[in-house]
Amino acid sequence: MLCPARSRVTSGRARWHSRRVPESRKGPVRPFARKRASLFQAVIGCDEVGRGALCGPVVVAAVWFEPEALPKGLLAKLDDSKRIDLAEREALFPLILKASKVRFAARSARYIDVYNIRNATLQAMTQAVVRLEVDAPIRIDGIDVPRGLSGDAQAVVKGDGKVPQIAAASICAKVLRDRLMTRLGLRHPHYAWVSNAGYGTKVHRGAIIEHGHTRHHRRSFGDLFDRLNGGQSLVTQAAPQAERLDGFENIVDADPLRALRGG
Predict the structure, then answer these.
(1) Taking the CB of residue 132, how many other CB atoms lie within 10 A of it?
(2) What predicted TM-score, i.e. pTM, was given to this entire model?
(3) For the chain, which terminus, N or C, has the lower number of CB atoms within 10 Å?
(4) pLDDT for res 236
(5) Is a pLDDT exceeding 70 seen at residue 222?
(6) What are the extents of the domains in the chain?
(7) How many Å apart are CA 106 and CA 60, to the nearest integer?
């Protein structure tokens, strides 16, 4: 049995804990507070989405804005797209487009198979930044600075938590690519792209084994596709058509419709 003094301390702690705000009500901690807006430069931020997927294009967004000029509340909501749920990404997407200059670029699975994912991603990054037609410092998420970018261009490791324009680019690229994969998924329902966005989930990999690959699969990603072809590499088959991007070369702005002609 506790002594009276211990009981009073225990009950006091219980009352204090009961007044604490539940973790779920606090909301996520984001890296870009409005009061720190003056600390962030007006740079071009560039990021990609889809680099590790088994199918579909890699999509890049380049975003420029002046942090202090953003609408109230927008800066504080930016973060790495992986830390933001689907509903909030969709809500932020039109706000970013309206308050910023945004351009996109992409490379198809065929292009990736021939030139590899790193080169394809860097080429798309260069293209997206050039399409902005903005003279400003450039910050690229990751460790590589693409060739062809002049001036102050730097890679920033984990940049979507350090540079707000990179975070915005991450969100924009993620939303656009998810929409593209949803539309492709409706045409190829066996692979569950609507839910997995082309990444290598158990369901997706099982569907590849059962139904084979599509023109949107990256045949150079692992030995799964080679096994389906009796051990003969499928990558060489993609080479003659590598420049044909299945319409993904049309990705310039936020309209995904033009990029999905054909299957």
Answers:
(1) 18
(2) 0.81
(3) N
(4) 47
(5) no
(6) 34-178+245-253
(7) 6
In angstroms, the CA 222 to CA 140 distance is 27
CA 65 distance to own-chain centroid:
19
Amino acid at 263: G
Q: What is the 3-state secondary structure (H, E, C) of the chain?
A: CCCHHHHHHHHHHHHHHHHCCCHHHHCCCCCCCHHHHHHCCCCEEEEEECCCCCECCEEEEEEECCHHHCCCCHHHHCCCHHHCCHHHHHHHHHHHHHHCEEEEEEECHHHHHHHCHHHHHHHHHHHHHHHHCCCCCEEEECCCCCCCCCCCEEEECCHHHCCHHHHHHHHHHHHHHHHHHHHHHHHCHHHCHHHHCCCCCHHHHHHHHHHCCCCCECCCCCCHHHHHCCCCCCHHHHHHHCCCCCCHHHCCCCCCHHHCCCC
Residue 102's identity, in one-letter code, is V
